[in-house]
Amino acid sequence: MPSARPVAVIVLAAGEGTRMRSSTPKVLHRLAGRTMLGHVLHAAETLDPEHLLVVVGHARDQVMATLTGKAKAVVQETQDGTGHAVRIALDTIPDAEGTVVVVPADSPLLTAETLHKLVESHELHSAATTLLTAVVDDPTGYGRVVRSGGSVTKIVEHKDADAATLQIHEVGTSIYAFAAGHLRTALQQLTTDNAQGEQYLTDVIGLHKDAGLTVTATIAEDADETRGVNDRAQLADLARVLRDRIVQQHLRNGVAVLDPQTTWIDVDVQLSADVTLKPNTQLYGSTTVATGAVVGPDTTLTDTQVHEGAEIRRSEVIGAVIGAEASVGPFSYVRPGTVLGARGKIGGFVETKNAQIGDDTKVPHLSYVGDATIGDRSNIGAGTIVVNYDGQAKHRTTVGDDARVGSNNSLVAPVQVGDRAYTAAGSAITEDVPDGALAVARERQRNIEGWTAERRPAKGEEPA
Ligand code: UD1
Ligand code: CA
């Protein structure tokens, strides 16, 4: 029985990626919330290899800083070709025997299943080389798979191909399984006798074939999976493919995605059945949404927890917790550290930050609540501002349970408003309000009778 556990996976990530025209290394560009390299490593890790080696070169410090878990960097000082890259990685594990998988770091759509199948097929055939190929509409730039009598004899790089070979639409994907010992032997024999003056990994195929070893090829069922990224247009294309893949998965799991084409969901987002996502919704990072919740339209949630039955419309929410049956929006900006209680409300044109807002408490209109704790069943009147910053430091504001803050108040922190306390409309609250008290903190109104006739007489009229 095939063990399907490779001794090593080697990820090729040393290339420069100049066509991205970016100061970010190519393999660190992101789609669906994860770097290209991260996607490839994620798939590779499911093979549970003994060694997970990442060949780094260009921008190695930046790339190495993203490696976690089992992944270990191998530095390729000069990019002398894919064959050279694999050789120096293999040199770090000289005693390894068994299956070695090679994947390029710029094929982010490659799935764990495809890798598993590749390894199984490789071990079943006791092959020296098993390569994954793809049949594509436009093979420009790829190495062409040359077959004779059905079996693969070699791969010819685009730049080395003659006119007849250029007509071939089956291409190499740079995804392989090798037998470690045979791979080592062939890598010693690589030359740089080609158009690019590089040691081509693809030449291992011809060498194994010439040595009478078993070389098998599997054509990828889904050519999209093996697509590489060389420029931003390809990255955008693959991001769309991945978006569709993620949305389809959520649809199958019972999420109502009303407009798949405008719904972008990062890979680590978790959605329960019977969540509804309305058009133009983006769910990023570690966001989770519980059953019955409705998000959108026009809403972005980042690293946010949404509990059962909550509703968030036309708003931006970052690093927040939205309680069960609570509501947010339209047009609100909910910033990190906001915790909205069950059945609570952050209404229209409200900004919150680092604010605990209790169960059944409402901040319905046009307010700013920052660095504040508000109890349960309280109401914050329209236009109220928590004045949390004195120009030097932030201070905290506390409002108790069952409190009523009037419209257009300024709560000047640090300040406390007690349980069941009221504040009058238009108050600037600078001192604590005891439980059950009414605070009035504004000028008493004065009416000057007859002022208009005296000071602003109508045209042609004498002042009174
Ligand atoms: C390679 C294959 C080609 C295949 C194509 C699929 C070779 C010679 N050619 O071509 O047959 O159709 O992939 O996408 O293998 N890298 C290193 N060190 C190096 C050179 C490359 O780590 O010295 C890495 C790159 O960062 C990249 C991967 O290897 O992740 C592939 O290299 P790239 O230059 O993109 O090869 P292609 O020309 O695309
Ligand atoms: Ca490439």
Secondary-structure map:
Elements: E1 8-13, E2 30-31, E3 34-35, H1 36-45, E4 51-56, H2 60-65, E5 71-75, H3 82-91, E6 99-104, H4 112-124, E7 129-135, E8 144-148, E9 151-156, H5 163-166, E10 170-179, H6 180-188, H7 203-210, E11 215-219, H8 232-252, E12 256-257, E13 263-265, E14 270-271, E15 276-277, E16 281-284, E17 288-289, E18 294-295, E19 299-302, E20 305-306, E21 311-312, E22 316-318, E23 321-322, E24 327-328, E25 333-334, E26 339-340, E27 345-348, E28 351-357, E29 362-365, E30 368-374, E31 379-380, E32 385-387, E33 397-399, E34 404-405, E35 410-412, E36 415-417, E37 422-423, E38 428-429, E39 438-439, H9 451-455
Parallel strand pairs: 1-4, 1-6, 4-5, 7-11, 12-15, 13-16, 14-17, 15-18, 16-19, 17-20, 18-21, 19-22, 20-23, 21-24, 22-25, 23-26, 24-27, 25-28, 26-28, 27-29, 28-30, 30-33, 31-34, 32-35, 33-36, 35-38, 37-39
Antiparallel strand pairs: 2-3, 6-10, 7-10, 8-9
Helix pairs in contact: 3-6, 6-7
The structure holds uridine-diphosphate-N-acetylglucosamine and calcium ion.
